[in-house]
Amino acid sequence: QVQLVESGGGLAQAGGSLRLSCAASGSIFGINVMGWYRQAPGKQRELVASITTGGTTNYAEAVKGRFTISTDNAKNTGYLQMNSLKPEDTAVYYCNLRPVGAILWGTWGQGTQVTVSS
Question: Is 102 helix (H, G, I), strand (E, B) or coil?
Fold first, then answer.
């Protein structure tokens, strides 16, 4: 399984920005599809954004216009740029991906905590 390590979380004020990174280890020759997810206390994990090799992106309605998903295929790394943060964005953020030529997705990492204050 692909090993995933999320980073870049922290404390931000409402209206601020954070950039999350998702590093994938192993012999990966590009990313087929990648998604960012988040889970707030007492809530189910939800899909925030996804991107395919063709560049097609999808965003949850709650983050449209504020978050941007991208990948650096040469580095096997994904990113989530988060702008105009709101307190309701507070959650643990996770990434997952499927490498080019692979059938299985990676295993869930530990995630990175994002906390947005009022």
Answer: coil
Q: What is the DSSP letter of 27?
A: S
Q: What is the DSSP letter of 43?
A: S
Given a cut of 80, is residue 1 above it in pLDDT?
Answer: no
pLDDT for 63-78, tens place per residue?
999 999 999 988 889 9
Helices (H) and strands (E) in the chain, counts: 0, 10
**Residue 36, beta-bridge partner list:** 49, 95
β-sheet bridge partners, residue 66: none
Distance CA 79, CA 77 (A): 7
Cα atoms found within 13 Å of the Cα of residue 37, Cβ hemisphere only: 16
The position carrying tokens 């990966």 is 28
Buried b (16+ CB within 10 A) or exposed e, 1-29: ebebebebbeebeeeeebebbbebeeebe
Lateral strand order in the sheet of 18-25:
3-7, 18-25, 77-82, 67-72
| Bridge partners of residue 3, in order along the sequence | 25
